[in-house]
């Protein structure tokens, strides 16, 4: 697992994601998904860049179907951004690193 990223499961989802004080980006992925593998290096770099402001977590949808069903994940990769236990943003499909950075920045700045 890339440094700065965490792994969540159906069993740890509530504690690791919903109860987090920081916003959490959850990457729903699967082994067989080429676009999932394509964005992993970008997510790893962004995890280090946003350390202390945002958590990036991965969950294998095949191994953890309950969370995938709970949040209506129908396509992979799907990135869900959680803040205070609620989904505040959804990114479906592979995106360039710059687009992911912009989406994450929007979640780490508090509106005045």
UniProtKB/TrEMBL annotation:
Active-site residues from the entry: 33, 36
Keywords assigned by UniProt, alphabetized: Disulfide bond, Electron transport, Redox-active center, Transport
Domain Thioredoxin: 1-109
Gene Ontology MF: a single term: protein-disulfide reductase activity
InterPro entries xref list: Thioredoxin, Thioredoxin-like_sf, Thioredoxin_CS, Thioredoxin_domain
Sites marked Deprotonates C-terminal active site Cys: 27
Cystine pairs: 33-36
Gene Ontology cellular component terms for the protein in this record: cytosol
Biological process terms in GO annotation: cell redox homeostasis
Keyword Signal attributed: no
Pfam family, one: Thioredoxin
Site, as annotated: Contributes to redox potential value: 34-35
Residues in coiled coil: none
Keyword Electron transport among UniProt keywords: yes
Family indicated by similarity: Belongs to the thioredoxin family.
The name this protein goes by in its record: Thioredoxin
Gene: trxA_1
